[in-house]
Structure formats: structure tokens, C-alpha cells
Amino acid sequence: MTDTASKPGQTEVWITGIGLATSLGEGLDANWAALAEKRINVDEKGFAPYVVHPLTPVSFDSQIPKKGDQRQMEAWQRIGTYAAGLALDSAGIKGNKDILSKIDMVVAAGGGERDLNVDTGVLTAEAKGANAPGFLNERLMSDLRPTLFLAQLSNLLAGNIAIVHGLGGTSRTFMGEEVAGADAARIALARIASGESDIALVGGSHNGERKDLLVLYEFGDFNLKDKFAPVWARKDHAGFALGSAGAFLVLESKAHAQARGAKPFARLSSVVADLARRKQPGDMAATLEQLWAKLPRREGKGAIISGATGAEPATSEERDFLKGHADFPVRSTGTMFGHTMETQFPLGIALAALSISRGALFPPNDSTGTEIEMQGAPTQIVVVGAGHWRGEGMALVEAVS
Amino acid sequence: MTAPRDKLGRPVVVVTGMGIMTSLGAGKADNWAKLVAGESGIRTITRFPVDGLKTTMAGTVDFVSVDPFSSTGLSERMAELVTEEALEQAGIGAKADFPGPLFLAVAPVEVEWPQRRELGRAVGALDFNYDDLLRISGGGKYSAYHHRFMFGSVAAHLAETFGTKGSPISLSTACASGATSIQLGVEAIRRGETDAALCVATDGTVNPEALVRFSLLSALSTQNDPPQAASRPFSKNRDGFVMAEGAGALVLESFEAATARGAKILGVIAGCGELTDSFHRTRSSPDGKPIIGCMNKTLADAGMTPDQIDHINAHGTATPENDKMEFNTTSAVFGELAQKIPVTSNKSMVGHTISAAGAVEAIFSLLTLEHQRIPPTINYETPDPTILFNVVGNKARDARVTAVMSNSFGFGGQNASLILTREPA
Question: Model pTM?
Fold first, then answer.
């Protein structure tokens, strides 16, 4: 097990910026209002029978002013570059060259947004008999846009953020579906807590409105079909509804934040992650229990923000784990935002920090009783991220004392 | 060797195991023998038809079999083999019980053409669209493809096979990925989170679409005949890099932990540095400042000055822009020493192993330290008169080497450098 907890003598790490562009809205107020109203933006028709949570329309120009930059990106990169800009704005460091020239970046990314017309063009031509040895080569050479590759490369989300927002510190891209988001936060926290770094931009983005992704997850029968239901109510109709979202955080040492007069949303106290073997029923729940035991929780009102996907058996295992911690009211980002894969964990941290800073947990939205009302202000929120296939992560977000 | 801590008070990080595979062959012994003999691993591609391609050669690893074949499957198998070699040398932990985390540099994973074509055939119609592909993808027939094409699949397999601890990290920093995997391991040990880390980098992506992608960006050499002469770092007639496959694995340990268990120390990762270039997606800032900053950060991290570096293992891709930029930036950092320090590019022989290159070249640098012999830069017949490096041209050179700088620069503004030494400073 690898873990990052603030140890004695280590630096306290604050969340001083949050950027959100999701299916519910752009910015913190719009997302908070939608959560308060239990409003879900779900599309059951556009990709029928598959259910997706489409991105709310945003004006990319406001964060990516050059059209040329926008053209160089596919949707997942535009969403992420946009949300990263919102996070820098939120932290009050947009355009601050002194800080941006040294800020460290850890991005959780997938990639590979494909040109569907090129793919089907090749396949249908082959079905009609095109079988010359160089057929595929020639079609790809003539049909692929030269810059499409750059819109597909995982590390080019970070590359685009650096170019558009002028970031010049370090840049690392982690891949590996859901837990990549937890590992990104874990490494960024460890580097700041140990003094290797003062400030970091952490997050990810995902375009859920992609048929090539639906094919990939359909291979494993993971897509939610036909009708939306809250994550906890999908047991007999399992699956995840892909969601579009960008979620970025600015993490900062307390001293660095105080020196520039920045106010924290919350403190990121710990991030832990592991890889359960998931060979036997209960393996994943046992790993979640071990991660839970590693979090330095304190007395006080707590809550859990879960990234459960709705896919089985992972969601049922996570529910078993949650039952053992019923004193922590649960909220599901999967229900409200869909499944945003690498972005789900940073999104969970963002909502935990937002809930703490606003003095309330957003309301439950669930018919099964897994989510219950919470009175009063949470002082600690545990973010749980269990992947649909592999990988488990957990974070503790606390009120700054 | 008596210094468990470096000049900055951090644990010294040493290498106790290495495994390597390139188009030259499997293992350290074979690779080193061929490398110092100046052999090329570049050959005409036979894995798939090359009709219609501008570039028809690459440094493929054809001696490892994977069934069913996929680029990700080959990456995984190579990673497994080099890890076995590294662990055997290190003699650390127990079978399937490595006492530390895994940091894996791996090419971005995606569904590949053989699988896409299988789907196309399964539709069973002459005309169809993407929805038809989607309609037949479920039902369990292709569930193995879901597992294969998860980004985290290679790391999960390695973590389960070798029993690494915690959440394995899969990373991509393009052509700097291998160096980044080492850097993450070094940092984890310096922070005291672990006494050991397994750093692996692998790339088996010579496939038609990958070749076309780099070709469309005009990044590849088209000097196909003879293939062995295509990769010409620092030469006037260089015209691009040569795609290649390979993998490297390093067992990193704190000096203290390694000596406590009596492990043989193969070298020291004395310094790591990284600096992002926000100028352009594929081109370096014309003033070279980010690369200069990256090298300076690495020297500072190692607590060393330029005059203490006695060899540079260059990124040396043989693209017109990279090699010139590398000389200019090295000159800015090293001054006149840039023309005196022996410089070589392993890519002249093994090609550009992309995601694996940083680790492959770090291992070659450590072997250079061990053997006190610098492998040549082959195909160095017509030196570029504007690149005044002291290139170890065509023939290996015996030299006193105590500290090597190894550079990696990649798309997306990724710059990373390492300094490797024989003994703790």
C-alpha cells in the first residue's frame, strides 16, 4: 500500500483553487446550485441505447482565447484546458507569471479520441473487398489529419494547459482509468508535503460523448443502457453512464498560500491508493477497509463522496464497505455527473472541498437509502474512488483549523 | 562508498538491478556487446505490409512472441522480461514480492487495427456505421479486449506478477517517459516512503497507425535503404528519427537499504530534473530556455557543476531540429565544455524507443560507467558543421567516465534529464 499522509514536520497542504466544467454547469456556483436542486443532465437518446451525461455548453473562448489552440485539441483536451483555467482563476494565480513559471502539474488522462469517419471508411471499404496489402497504410496516410495525433496523446492535455495558460514547472501525466486521478493527487500532495514543491495543478478531463469509448466499455458490458437510475439503484440494471467533465485543483503549501494571502477551500490531508487483486468476492471491500484505516480521521462530522460507477460487482462491494461506516452520510458523483473515469477522483475532491467551504453537504439523490440527509457542516469528507475494473483510491479532505 | 545521504541531506538512491531489451537483442550482455561494436538494430519492417508508407524501417523487437498480437501486449511482455532480468540481478525481495512501488512508463493504450478489423468483419455487412460496430461489441465475446485496452492494464499485470506494493503508476511524458519513471522512483525513496522502487519503461508500438502519425508530422527519417544507415544523429544529412521498440527496468534502492542487505551497487541516480516548455506542442522554445533550465535543475539536484560531467548520453533523435537545439542548449549550460565532453546518441543504433527511451538510455549510461567505454554514434560520416559536439563517432571509445548526463525531450514540452554516477558524490 502506498500512502501520503501529512506526517509530523510535514507541510500542511491546502486546496486554494477549484475549476469545474461538467454536465451540470460551469464554475462552482452553477455546479453547487444544480446539486442543491438535485438536477441531473442526462441524455438517453443521443447515444441510445447508451446513457451519457453531456457537457453543459461552455464558451471555450473565455479560457482558450486563440481559436488556433482550440483547433489543435479534441473535446477532452478543450474541456480540461478550460477547467484548468477556471482553477487558476479560482486560486487567483491566472496570469501570475512568477507562480505559473514554477507550478507543478500532475494530470490524470486517457486519450485517443478517434476520427470515426476514417475508421468506418477503412472498415467498410475492406468489407467491400479492398484487400491490397498497403490499403490501410494508404488510407491512413491520406485521411488522418496530421495534428489529430496530438489531440490523442495522453500527455498533450498537460501540454495544452502549459501552452494556453503559460505553465512552466514540471509536468507529469498519469494514465490508468479511475485510480490515475487518485494517484495524481497522491503524488502532488506528497511532493508539496515533503517540500519538493510549493504549488501544483492537479486534475483531469473526460469527454463521455464518444462512441469509440462506448465500444471499449461495451466490450466488457459496462455501459448503462436505456434508462437512467441513481448509481445505487442499478444493481439489477448495472452499468455506468459516461460523463463529460473537467475538474482541476490548485494544491498549495499553507506557507505559500498565506504568503500571497490566498484563502483555502479546505485542507487535503491524505491520499491513499492500492490495487486490490479482485479475485474473490470481498477482495475490493477489504482493500477499501484497509485504505480507510490509513486515513488520519478526527472527531467531528464526516461524510463520504463516492465515485462508485454503477458497474458490478464493484458497486455492490463498495456499498458493503459503506454500510460499515453508516455514520458518514454518502453522496455519489456517478449519479449526479455520470462516470468521468480519470476525472472522477479529482471531481470528488473538488466537491468535498466545496462542501466544506460552503458549510454543508449537498443533498442526497437516491431511492435506495444508501444516501441520507446530513444536518450541519461537515468538517471532514472522505473521497472514495474504486475503479470499475481495477484500482482503489481514497482521500481525506478537512476543514482548515 | 560511505555516504548514505546526499549533499542536500536526502537518501542517496542507487541502482541494484537492470534489465534491457531493444532491437539489438535481449539482456544487458547482448545489448552492450552489439552497442559497443556499433551494430544497428534498424531493419525493414516485416510485421505488417509497408506499401504506401514513406518510412519502411524501424527498430522492431521481433524475437518476442505475443499471441494474440497487439502493441500493448508486446509492451507488456517486454516489460515483464526486462523486469525479470532486473530482479534477478538485484536479488531483492522474494518471488512475486517486490518490496516497493512500481512506476511504469508506457505508451498510451488504445484499441488497435486488428481488433477494429475483427469487429468490422463481425458486423457482416457491406455498408455500416459506427453504431453497428457498437451494437455488436457487447455480450462478452470481446471482454478480453476491454481488459487488454485499459490504460492501466500493463501496470496491473506487472504489479500482480511481481508483487509490487500499492497502486502502480502508469505514466506518459511522451519521449521523456522513461526518465520520468526513474524520477518518480527517486523521489519516493528520497521522501522516505519506500526503500526500493521498480521503474520500468516499455514501448512496442511499431504499428501502421503509429508510423503514419509520426510520418504525418514529418518526424521520421525516410532514408529507408539501407535501414541501418537511417538514424544519423548530429550528421548534416540527418532527416528524422527512426521508430523503435524496447524496454528497460531498474531496481532503485536507498544506499542504506542496498548496503544493509549486501547488494551490489551498479550506479547512483545522482540527480533528476524536469522543466516544461509551454512554447509549442511539438517544437522547443527557440531560445532553448526550458531545456537549459532542465539541465541546470538537474545539475543543482545532483549538487554538481558542469565540469564534473564527463559524458553526455544525448537525446540525439536525429531530427534536424532536436540535435541542433540540443547542442545550443548544452553549450549554454556547459560553455566550451560542450565541445569537449564526449557525446553519444544510442538512437543511432537502437532507434528511438519513445516511451522507453529514457530508461533504456539510462541503463546504457550505467553500463558505460561500468565498462568505462562509450558506445559510438554510428552513421556519423558527414558531421553537421554547426553541431560542435565531441561526438563519439562510429567507433566506441575508452574513457574515464564518472558522471553521465542523460537527456530526454518530448512532445508536449516535456524535458527531463538525469545524472548517473558510479559512486555517491
Answer: 0.98
